[in-house]
Amino acid sequence: MVSYKVLAGVGLLACVPDAFAIPVVSEPSTTVFSEPTFTPSAVPITNVTSHGPYTGPAPTTTGALSTSVLAPSIPARPPEPYKFAYPADGKLHAPEPAPYTPAGGLGTNGSEPVYRVQSDFDYQSIALALYQEYIELDLFHHGLVKYSEQDFEDYGLTAEDRFLLQFMGDQEVGHATVLTNMLGPEAPVQCTYNYPDTNLHEYIDFSQKLTRWGEAGVYGFLNHLDSRESAQILLQSITTEARQQVIFRQFEGLFPMPEWFQVGVPQSWAWTLLAPYISSCPANQTRLIWQNFPKLNVLNQPNPARTNGSAVYNETLGDYANTLSTADINAGEGCNNSTCGPAITHNRSIPLSYPGRQVFLSWEDPGLAVGPNNSYVTDTTAGAPQFAAWVTQLNVTYTPLQNISGNTAYTIQPNTSTIEGDPAVNGTIFLAITDCDLYVTPFNLTQINPHVRALTIYQAG
Ligand SMILES: *[C@@H]1O[C@H](CO)[C@@H](O)[C@H](O)[C@H]1NC(C)=O
Ligand SMILES: *[C@@H]1O[C@H](CO)[C@@H](O)[C@H](O)[C@H]1NC(C)=O
Ligand SMILES: *[C@@H]1O[C@H](CO)[C@@H](O)[C@H](O)[C@H]1NC(C)=O
Ligand SMILES: *[C@@H]1O[C@H](CO)[C@@H](O)[C@H](O)[C@H]1NC(C)=O
Ligand SMILES: *[C@@H]1O[C@H](CO)[C@@H](O)[C@H](O)[C@H]1NC(C)=O
Ligand SMILES: *[C@@H]1O[C@H](CO)[C@@H](O)[C@H](O)[C@H]1NC(C)=O
Ligand SMILES: *[C@@H]1O[C@H](CO)[C@@H](O)[C@H](O)[C@H]1NC(C)=O
Ligand SMILES: *[C@@H]1O[C@H](CO)[C@@H](O)[C@H](O)[C@H]1NC(C)=O
Ligand SMILES: *[C@@H]1O[C@H](CO)[C@@H](O)[C@H](O)[C@H]1NC(C)=O
Ligand SMILES: *[C@@H]1O[C@H](CO)[C@@H](O)[C@H](O)[C@H]1NC(C)=O
Ligand SMILES: *[C@@H]1O[C@H](CO)[C@@H](O)[C@H](O)[C@H]1NC(C)=O
Ligand SMILES: *[C@@H]1O[C@H](CO)[C@@H](O)[C@H](O)[C@H]1NC(C)=O
C-alpha cells in the first residue's frame, strides 16, 4: 500500500507543473511566436471536374464483393443471460482498478489503442463511410461552383452562408483522412459523381437528404464495430456530419431537429441511397459488400419548397432519394424568405406531413445496374411486399400496404410516438416496403434486410 502511494505520487509529480510557481499576472503579449506543432497530412484531394451519368464501357466486374455465404439470414436468438446479471442498484460491486475508476468498460485496462480495422465488418463499414465522406467533399464544393452568388442571394443565403458551405466541404477532407488511415493503402479513393439537382433549392434538399443517410448509415453500425478505437474517431467525425445535416435543414427553412432521437440504419440502406450518385471510380477501386435495394418512389413526397408542402403529387426529381423538384411550383406557392425560406428555425404554418396522410408508392424491380461504372446491381430477397416500414428515431413502425397493384400501393402515415410527447414520424426519415412486419429495434435493425423489397427517404417534416 505504501509503495503504491509513493509510486502514484511520483507519477503525479512528473506530470503536473510546479505547484510553488508564482503565477505572473500581466497584460497579454502579442509578440510571442508559437511554433506550429506537427500536423498530419490530409489525403490527396483533386477537384472533381467532371459530373454527370456514367457513359463509359460496360464494367468487367459487377455486383457486390462477396465470398462464400453460410446462410440466407442470421437467426434471431434469445438474449445472453449474463446481460441480466449486473445488479444495477447504484452501488459499487467490484474493486476499483484505480482511484475514481469504476470496474468494467471495454478498452479501459491501459492497453495501447490501435486505430485500425479488425474485421471484414469493420473494413466494409468504414470503407462505406469513406465513400460517403468523398461524395460530400465534392458535393459541398461543387454547389459553390455550380450555383452563382446571385443564385444564393435570390434564395436567401448570404456570403457568410456560402463560407459555411465551403467550410463543411473542407471538414470532409479531415474525415476522409482519418478513415483512410484506419483502412490502409487499399482504402477507396475519390470517384466522380452524378447529382440530380437542377437549381439551388433542389441542391439544398438533396444535400439535406444525403447527409441524413450519411449520418444514419454510420449510427447503424458504430456500436457493432470490433475496433472500438476506430469507432471513437468515427463518432467524432459523424457528430460533425450530423451538424451539417441540421445546417442544410436550416438552409432549407425546415425545423432543424423535429425529433428527440436521430435514427440509425443498416449499411446497405446507406449504400442503396449513395451508390446511384456515384458515376465512376478508378480502375482498381476497392469494392463493397453491401446490397443495393431497388428504388422506392414516394409519389406524393412532401415538398419543402412549397408553403403547402403536403399538397403534392409527383414532385420529385425521380431519383433514389426522392429529392424535391421545383418544376411545378407556381408563383405564390413557393417558400421564400418570410414563410419557409432559410432560417435558424421555422414553425411551418402547414406541416409537411401528418398522421393519417395517404402515401402513394411505386417501386422498381431488382436487377438494375447502379453505382460506380454501373457495376453494382439492385437486389432483394424479399417476397411480395405487404408493409411499409417507417424507420424513425428508435422505432420501426409497420403500416399495411393497401390497393397493391403491380408495383404500386398506398399506405397511411402512422400516428405513433417514440416516448410520450415525441411523435416518431417527423424530419427526414427512411421508408421501406417489406414482406413482413418483423419486430426489430435499433441494435438489431439489420435483421430486417432479407425482408426489404425497396427503400427511400421520406420527408415527413
Ligand atoms: C480546388 O478548387 C478551389 C477553388 O474552387 C481551389 O481553391 C483549390 O486550390 C483547388 N484544389 C485543387 C487541388 O486543385
Ligand atoms: C430484435 O430485438 C428485439 C429486442 O430488442 C427482439 O424482441 C426481436 O426479436 C429481435 N428481432 C430479430 C429479428 O432478431
Ligand atoms: C486488456 O483488455 C483487452 C480486451 O479489451 C484484453 O485483450 C487484454 O488481454 C487485457 N489486458 C490485460 C493486461 O488485462
Ligand atoms: C430573399 O432575401 C434576399 C435578401 O434579403 C433577397 O435578395 C431575395 O430576393 C429574397 N428572395 C425572395 C424569393 O424573396
Ligand atoms: C490503386 O493504384 C494506386 C496506384 O498504383 C495505388 O496507390 C493504390 O493502392 C491502388 N489501390 C488498390 C485498391 O489497389
Ligand atoms: C470506371 O470508369 C472510369 C471512367 O471511364 C475508368 O477510368 C475506370 O477504369 C472504370 N473503372 C472500372 C473498375 O472499370
Ligand atoms: C393544403 O393543400 C391541401 C390539399 O390540396 C388542402 O386540402 C389544404 O386546405 C391546403 N392547406 C392550406 C392551409 O392551404
Ligand atoms: C411524374 O412526372 C414525370 C414527368 O415529370 C412523368 O414522366 C411520370 O410519368 C409521372 N409519374 C406519375 C406516376 O405520374
Ligand atoms: C413568398 O410567400 C408569399 C406568402 O406566402 C407569397 O405571396 C409569394 O408569392 C412568395 N414568393 C415566391 C417567390 O414564392
Ligand atoms: C410554434 O409551434 C409550437 C408547437 O406547435 C407552438 O407551441 C408555438 O406557439 C409556435 N410558435 C410560433 C411563434 O408560431
Ligand atoms: C414535426 O415537428 C414540427 C415542429 O415541432 C411540427 O410543426 C410538425 O407538425 C411536426 N410534423 C409531424 C408530421 O408531426
Ligand atoms: C419506440 O421505441 C421505443 C424504444 O425502443 C419503445 O420503447 C417504444 O415502445 C416504441 N414505440 C412504438 C410505438 O413502437
From TrEMBL:
The lineage of its organism: Eukaryota, Fungi, Dikarya, Ascomycota, Pezizomycotina. This is Protein rds1. The keyword NADP does not apply. Residues 1-21 form the signal peptide. Keywords: Signal.
